[in-house]
Amino acid sequence: MNEVKDVIRIRRKELGLTYEELGKKCGCDKSTVRKWELGQINNMRRDKIIRLSQALDVSPLVILGMEDFNEDK
């Protein structure tokens, strides 16, 4: 099972998004996205989880670490 930080990094790169672009889609700044990818932020707000899952086209359960991420989507 991939860690949430890895899912964020993998999907962001697959979608060709920069930190800044993903941040705009989630309503946060690029430093927050970078911290998510580094695993420095463990407790995301509910609205950020939803926006992040929509931006990355994954289930919110993947972001919560409750569902496996299938890299072969």
How would you characterize the overall build of this protein?
Helices cover 59% and strands 0% of the residues. It contains five helices and no strands.
Structural class: mainly alpha
Strand content: under 5%
Order of helices and strands: HHHHH
Biggest sheet descriptor: none
Q: What would the principal axes of the Cα set say about the shape?
A: globular
- Please, what is the average pLDDT? 91
Number of helices in the DSSP assignment: 5
Question: In angstroms, what separates the terminal alpha carbons?
Answer: 15 Å
Question: Total strand count, please?
Answer: 0
Helix content: 55-70%
- As residue ranges, the low-confidence spans are none
Please give the radius of gyration in angstroms: 11 Å
Topology:
Elements: H1 4-14, H2 19-26, H3 30-38, H4 46-56, H5 60-63
Helix pairs in contact: 2-3
